[in-house]
């Protein structure tokens, strides 16, 4: 099954008066890269969110956004960590005394330090809240995955059509290859005869040169390998879990074989088919770049 790396999923979940909205979005990327946006009060569960994300996504840049609405929750009390403040003041006095610089620490120094002064939320139970948030996040990931699979199916159909086109071009190249050798041999004979005359032409030597030329420009192996790569590509598309990395590797090999065919056979009709194959491969590469 093909899954796109691009997708979006959203869910809303309500339980015991708490309403959670979760959103999951992703774009293509070489590796798994997660960014989480959520209330500070549940930061301790970021690792759990990562584990959930990795069950649904192998690679790509992923963003999880969580919005928490609990009407009964109030944050009307400030909590001050006086022990940490004492340590800061002591450290400031030691630095001032040791280096002979002014100790200009004041109240404003501490007001901006979130680890020292925090709102204390009344009635907040992180563990119970996480159970509700987890449900919302899983629903969002399921919606996100459904969108990626739908897009993947469309991409897979397009790529499969292009594979059929490439195979048809390979068939045409294989048919034209012997004709190209004959045409080039005839041109070579004509040039030699014009240069040294018909009677002076050594037929045995000429036949040997034609055989060497035919062997040098033979593209049978390249066509076989290119068709084999196409078959492997199609098989990978039909796997339970298609690998975008493997598809990328196969595309590189297919492009390599096409280049070799183009460089070995100096024939206009075959060269045109090679150009068309490379155009299809480039379109497949663009599509494949977004496959997980």
What does this structure look like?
It is a single chain. Strand 3, helix 1 (about 45-55) and strand 4 (about 60-70) form a beta-alpha-beta unit. The relative contact order is 0.14. The chain folds into three domains: about 5-70 and about 125-145, Ribosomal Protein S5, domain 2, CATH 3.30.230; about 75-120, no CATH class; about 150-290. The protein has helices at about 45-55, 80-100, 105-110, 125-195, 205-215, 220-235, 245-265, 270-290, and strands at about 5-15, 20-25, 30-35, 60-70, 75-80, 115-120. The strands form two sheets. It has a four-stranded mixed sheet. Helices cover about 60% and strands about 15% of the residues. The mean pLDDT is about 85.
Which SSEs are present, and which pair or pack?
Blueprint: E1 7-15, E2 18-27, E3 32-37, H1 46-56, E4 60-69, E5 74-80, H2 82-99, H3 107-111, E6 117-122, H4 126-196, H5 203-216, H6 220-237, H7 244-264, H8 268-288
Parallel strand pairs: 3-4
Antiparallel strand pairs: 1-2, 2-4, 5-6
* Percent in helix: 55-70%
Low confidence ranges: none
How many domains make up the 3D coordinates?
3
> Can you count the helices?
8
Give the helices and strands as they follow along the chain: EEEHEEHHEHHHHH
Oligomer: single chain
Q: How would you classify the helix and strand content by structural class?
A: alpha+beta
Strand order of the largest sheet: 1-2-4-3
Shape: elongated
Percent of residues in β-strands = 15-25%
Main sheet characteristics = 4 strands, mixed
Number of strands: 6
Overall average pLDDT: 85
What is the rounded distance between the termini? 10 Å
Query: Any idea what the radius of gyration is?
Result: 34 Å
